Amino acid sequence: MPNSATKITDGVYWVGVNDHDTPCFEGLWALPKGMSYNAYLVRGEKKTALIELTKTTYTDEFIGRVEEIVPLNEVDYIIHNHMEPDHTGAIPAVYKLCPQAEVLCTAKAKTFLDQFYGEGGRVTAVKDGDSIDLGGKTLKFLSYPWLHWPDTMFTYLAEDKVLFSCDAFGGYGAVDDALFDDEMDLEPYWPEAKRYLGTIVASYLQHVVKAIDKWVKGGMGIDILCPSHGPVYRQNPMAIISRYQEWAKNEKEAKVVMIVGSMWGNTHKMGEIVRRRLEEKGIEVKYFDAASAESGAILGEMLNAGGIVFGAPTYDANIYPKLEYYLMLFKDKKKNGYPVGVFTQNSWNVSVLPKMEAYLKDMKSEIIQPEVVGHGSPNAEVTEALQQMADNLAMRITNLCACPL
């Protein structure tokens, strides 16, 4: 069990940390199964490289893990694949303990390193294709900006075909029960990997596709895949790569994500009418209550959704706040161009449709007609309008789902 340094292959070790204390990654995404911050030590015949560090909270544990293999003052290189604080928070303590180590990262990461930690004197900015020789082990650096920060690179151990892929191919969940793909049942893990992609990398999906294409065209094989979060794939790296490739295509299916907020149940009654009608038309529906849903799960389901439905009551003459959060989130995450159905509750005679439409227009959404307004429990007229909206949305998705939006 990886609560200690763990050998991956000759001269390569996992020296990461498992986190069961942080409730939400980035302060946003729930971590019911914890989180791993993977770091790796590579020892050649002449030199030693440390790839990635950990977040500040786990500095002491991380240092102890590295020193199970080698004293920190014997580390020759510290390699930062990117500068997000869950990978770099331990910098102040680690840099002091290995004053002779040369720091390697991209030019953009070097800028971040100076901004975040005031470090820069012993930093070398590496370019795409640069490499270092540890003595029988060659580390090659490959630039992959916007996965998911502008400073990101991968590190590749050429002799053993080990790819240290930073945040790409990662997922939520600690790995203290099992570190390797062949030691665990991956089926329960795939939703966490998809949720991670949907929340952390979703705004940059085309960069994922380009990165995989770049790797394939480069002709470099991968025998072992070592991401910064989640399991190490030593048996079948393509298990996660192929899934990322499929998810990142963002191809639309006959599927609708519904997010509905309700204070007293009437808006959910409207939502159930829409749900049933869509399902009758052969559309898969993922229905989420805005008051209690985990936003990461919603973003994970959005990766192959063909359409969206938002339902909201009026709250203090505004959009129900927990539903408005998702309008803001989808705008920020660039959920653009989808066909969208909208319904509201308007018992106060104050319409929130213009405010909802403003978000949807920013997202270049195709607003499906009719936009339905209810006044309490849905009557026959409202029911008919909701069914018509669902019919129109189903028809539009059926026409679109074979093509990327």
CATH architecture level-2 label of the largest domain = 4-Layer Sandwich
Low-confidence stretches: none
Q: Over the alpha carbons, how many angstroms does the gyration radius reach? A: 24 Å
Largest sheet: number of strands, sense, barrel closure:
7 strands, mixed
- SS class: alpha/beta
**Beta-strand fraction estimate:** 15-25%
The neighbouring-strand order within the major sheet is: 1-2-7-8-9-10-11
Average pLDDT value? 93
Count of DSSP H/I helices: 12
Structure description:
The chain is of the alpha/beta class. It has two domains: 6-249, Ribonuclease Z/Hydroxyacylglutathione hydrolase-like (Metallo-beta-lactamase, Chain A); 255-395, Flavodoxin domain (Rossmann fold, 3-Layer(aba) Sandwich). 33% of the residues lie in helices and 22% in strands. The chain is built from twelve helices and 23 strands. The strands form five sheets. A seven-stranded mixed β-sheet has the order 1-2-7-8-9-10-11. Strands 17, 18, 19, 20, 21, 22 and 23 form a seven-stranded mixed β-sheet that branches. Strand 21 (339-345), helix 11 and strand 22 (366-367) form a beta-alpha-beta unit. Helix 5 crosses helix 9 and helix 8 (266-280) packs across helix 12 (380-400). It is elongated. The model has no long low-confidence stretch (mean pLDDT 93).
